[in-house]
Write a structure and sequence with these properties.
CATH topology of the largest domain in chain B: Rossmann fold
Order of helices and strands of chain A: EHHHHHHHHHHHHHE
Number of strands of chain B: 22
Structural class of chain B: alpha/beta
CATH architecture of the largest domain in chain B: 3-Layer(aba) Sandwich
Largest interface: A-B, 26 and 34 residues
Shape of chain A: globular
Number of helices of chain B: 18
Number of domains of chain B: 3
Oligomer: heterodimer
Number of strands of chain A: 2
Number of helices of chain A: 13
Helix content of chain A: over 70%
Strand order of the largest sheet of chain B: 6-7-8-3-9-10
Largest sheet of chain B: 6 strands, mixed
CATH class of the largest domain in chain B: Alpha Beta
Strand content of chain B: 15-25%
Largest sheet of chain A: 2 strands, antiparallel
Radius of gyration of chain B: 25 Å
Distance between the termini of chain A: 15 Å
Strand content of chain A: under 5%
Helix content of chain B: 25-40%
Radius of gyration of chain A: 21 Å
Chain lengths: ~350, ~525
């Protein structure tokens, strides 16, 4: 018989080991699906690895995919630190994309356009995140439900825009008009899609870490998340901290949308995000809500996504496997987190 | 007094003494032999022997961390012992979980009750009791309840929802629940901590009646006077081992028992005479709206510089609301509050702290500290935005660490260091940490709730000395408590709360436990 026994302390190396164990468990579990699809497991994973990280072009493609997930991962990590359950990074990303696309379509000098796109996109994401936070602070509305449902509201609002008043008159497709060429983010490596936004995302992670670990706002976010009662007793304005966290989180998710518009698609369409907002939750959990961990976690998921497409072409396993891997990774991580608080004890029969 | 050195064998004399008092002479109801249980490197129990005869009330004494709870958890099946055996009526048995314990006739009343508040008394009794063909056998349950009530003088209305019961009644229900399941041995973990003095008398009468009818009882407590009044025999644990056994608690002094528990003499603190100065905190006609607990109704009180005002009362009579109003957590509906002559009625906790209000909350773990973060974070929490710990929104980690290290040293807080999870500390050390964080900034007024609840004698004494030292420095202190002897020892004046009002205020010199006890039940009006 086995039973769970509470741990008194958690070893430090767990922080690194748990995500790795979770990822290993995920790959092992999903190998069953690959086998069912009739492909060789080693071969399939091998194609995934070489297509996502095998050469320098593959690496840049993976980084381009990782950038939005770094932003949404940071957005979720910071929100979850304060126990503001922001499941709405997807909607905030879309709002950021729409807002920045509007700005980018206005003729002006390129550097100014990029700066304004970032500012307006971040502001749009922040405003969207403020809705569930305000509802929670003022009316005790559950933020999981409200932020999640808001995603659909934003998505259909976006659809209404690009099907109607904002439809690109030249193409006739339900897509927005493109941004000015001068507003396109500069490409850093000739012949790749590696754009400026990727670098901004990589810089944002340590900045967020600094904010959480070294500033008074970060201190208040951590304390509010761990124990709002003690925070209030200690003189922290808990409501204000939650609203600030929401603004910050929404702004980061908004920047994910800005990067997709300015660096990848240059316009807005209905599938501008293949669920980067939701992947941000997986990323944040794999990173154990540590902003520095968000970068490798996002790169892992991005590698799975780019790799899965190549694997699908080479072996015939459906590319949906990447979604399954994501979902399984989240579940495996949640199970792994159990072991920070508990250990498994074998209870033998006593004589 | 037969304070034997560690690990003395169980006493056959106890059984014969009980027999001579008329209880049946038989094998012990429960015998624990050589129980050892380690957690990592810490030996929580080491070669502990303990036995309870039918009809015997055994006191289990010891400071926090002495191993009382671990020992009882072994007996109740929550932990498997590393070594040793448990015998029930002379037969060795294995107890893997609470179901095994109940089957062996062992019942436990925990400090925190395990009741379903929306169900009735009878329904709570029947939880987990299989009825006929999947249905609940109410009639049989009612019969058993009536029998138990009559037999031991434990009466309760079977149809009342548990949420309407007082704390004392809920405890009675827990005891009935154990008896209902056929307990022959009842373990009570600090049962009097939540009771008013009059309720304690009722509990003791019931326990004596149960013992007289052949049940065995293990009574865990810190309160030496209660152990002396109730138990037939005591086992004292210290550092996981048996530090001594007391054969005649009634004729042993509290000081002797305290020495066994701590390993050294305990000298009560000396309260110097002091002349109180001007009022530092005044409440005038404070009322609150509905609150988790009893709301306040026109509370007026004051505390002067260099004075300790005790607030006595049965828990749930508005003490929580009073502490919340004073610490700025609960804005009052009416009335005014002043600190040193300045009206502060609608001030936030932070604004009150800035004016020199120190607070120690009733609930250290939920209100005081952030258990999942480093201890240092909790220690600087109220002053994180000040120059001492941050500048322009950036934390000063070195200053935070240095402050925590300095206080850990000054208050002898036992912990691996300032970066340890606060939740890993024991209750006494947490309370010292909270005290340190408030006293480090020389408060003019201090509001503390239940300052020594759950602490052992040594830690409690340390806290008392700090309060008296603050009083000598001119701090005005309000101590909200349920331990009347503690309040009498510390306070200059004692106010009694009853149903959200101040039932009366007495100078400590005129107050006695008996008189305060009467006022606490609303029997005596304004003095």
């Amino acid at each position: 018989m086995f039973r769970l026994e509470a741990r008194t302390s958690t070893p430090a190396w767990f922080n690194l080991a748990l995500p790795l164990v979770a990822i290993a468990a995920t790959l092992i579990l999903c190998s069953g699906l690959i086998a069912i699809a009739g492909a060789g497991v080693i071969e399939a994973y091998g194609v995934m690895l070489s297509a996502s990280l095998g050469d320098s072009y593959a690496i840049t493609e993976t980084l381009v995919r990782a950038a939005p997930m770094i932003f949404t991962g940071l957005a979720v990590a910071i929100a979850f630190r304060a126990k503001f359950w922001n499941i709405g990074a997807e909607g905030q990303l879309l709002a950021g994309a729409v807002a920045s696309c509007f700005v980018g379509a206005i003729p002006m000098p390129g550097y100014l356009a990029m700066l304004l796109m970032a500012l307006v996109g971040a502001a749009a994401g922040a405003l969207v995140a403020l809705v569930p936070a305000t509802l929670r602070v003022k009316f005790k509305v559950d933020d999981v439900v409200s932020s999640l449902l808001l995603n659909s509201v934003i998505y259909y609002a976006l659809m209404a825009l690009i099907e109607g008043p904002w439809k690109d008159t030249f193409s006739g497709y339900p897509i927005s008009p493109p941004i000015e060429d001068s507003a396109n983010f500069p490409v850093l490596v000739e012949g790749t899609r590696l754009h400026l936004g990727v670098v901004v995302a990589l810089i944002a992670a340590p900045l967020c870490w600094f904010l959480i670990a070294r500033t008074t706002l970060g201190f208040r976010i951590r304390v509010t998340g761990e124990n709002p009662e003690a925070a209030r007793y200690g003189g922290i304005n808990v409501q204000r901290v939650l609203l600030s966290t929401a603004l910050l989180s929404g702004a980061l998710a908004g920047l994910a949308g800005v990067g997709e518009v300015g660096g990848v698609h240059f316009q807005v369409m209905s599938d501008i995000s293949p669920g980067y907002g939701y992947s941000g939750i997986v990323v944040a959990m794999l990173a154990r809500l540590n902003p520095l961990g968000v970068v490798p976690a996002a790169i892992f998921l991005a590698a799975v996504m780019t790799g899965a497409e190549a694997m699908s072409r080479a072996t015939g396993v459906p590319a949906f496997l990447s979604d399954v891997i994501q979902g399984t990774a989240l579940l495996a991580m949640l199970v792994a987190l159990l072991f920070t608080a508990y250990r498994i004890r074998r209870v033998g029969a006593q004589t | 007094m037969a304070g034997r050195p560690e690990g003395g064998a169980a006493l056959p004399s106890a059984v014969s003494r009980i027999a001579s008092q008329g209880a049946p002479l038989s094998a012990p109801l429960i015998e624990m032999r050589g129980i050892t249980k380690s957690f990592g490197a810490v030996k929580a129990n080491e070669a502990v022997d303990l036995s309870v005869a039918p009809g015997e009330i055994l006191g289990l004494l010891g400071e926090n961390g002495a191993g009382k709870t671990t020992l009882m958890n072994v007996l109740f099946g929550a932990y498997a012992p590393d070594a040793g055996e448990i015998l029930v009526e002379g037969r060795p048995i294995a107890i893997h979980n609470s179901a095994d314990a109940l089957a062996a006739g062992i019942g436990m009343v925990h400090q925190h009750f395990h009741l379903a508040p929306r169900l009735t008394v009878l329904e709570n009794l029947l939880i987990g009791i299989p009825g006929k063909s999947g249905r609940i056998d109410r009639a049989r349950g009612l019969t058993r309840l009536t029998e138990i009530s009559r037999q031991y003088g434990l009466s309760l209305d079977p149809n009342l929802p548990v949420s309407t019961l007082s704390v004392g009644e809920q405890q009675r229900l827990e005891i009935i629940k154990a008896l209902f399941r056929g307990a022959k041995l009842l373990i009570l973990d600090e049962p009097t901590a939540v009771l008013a003095p009059s309720e304690v008398d009722g509990l003791f009468a019931a326990l004596r009646s149960m013992a007289a009818q052949g049940l065995g009882i293990i009574f865990i407590s810190h309160k030496l006077n209660e152990v002396r009044a109730l138990t037939h025999r005591c086992v004292v644990l210290r550092h996981g081992k048996v530090a001594g056994r007391v054969d005649h608690p009634a004729s042993t002094t509290s000081a002797e028992m305290a020495k066994l528990m701590c390993g050294h003499e305990i000298v009560p603190p000396v309260k110097q005479a002091s002349t109180p100065g001007a009022s530092v905190l005044t409440l005038d006609g404070i009322s609150t709206s509905a609150h988790a607990g009893t709301p306040l109704r026109e509370i007026s009180l004051f505390v002067r510089a260099g004075e300790i005002l005790g607030i006595a009362g049965v828990s749930g009579n508005g003490q929580r609301a009073l502490a919340d109003v004073i610490s700025g957590m609960l804005p009052p509906r009416a009335g005014t509050m002043m600190i040193a002559g300045k009206a502060v009625t609608q001030f936030s906790p932070r604004e009150l702290q800035a004016l020199g209000l120190g607070r120690i909350p009733e609930d250290r773990m939920t209100t005081g500290l952030v258990t999942n973060l480093p201890l240092a974070d909790s220690m600087v929490l109220p002053r994180i935005g000040t120059e001492a710990f941050s500048r322009k929104g950036l934390l000063n980690p070195a200053a935070i660490r240095a402050f925590a290290e300095q206080q850990i040293k000054a208050y002898d807080i036992r912990c691996p260091g300032p970066m340890v999870r606060a939740g890993a500390l024991s209750g006494g050390n947490l309370q010292k940490a909270l005290l340190a964080r408030e006293l480090a900034f020389d408060p003019k007024v201090l509001i503390v709730s239940q300052p020594t609840r759950g602490l052992d004698i040594g830690a409690a004494r340390f806290i008392h000395e700090k309060f008296l030292a603050m009083r000598a420095k001119g701090c005005g202190i309000i101590v909200i408590g349920e331990d009347l002897e503690e309040l009498l020892m510390l306070s200059d004046r004692i106010a009694v709360m009853y149903e959200g009002r101040i039932a009366g205020t007495l100078p400590s010199a005129d107050a006695t436990v008996a008189r305060l006890g009467l006022m606490m039940t609303g029997a005596e009006g304004r003095a």
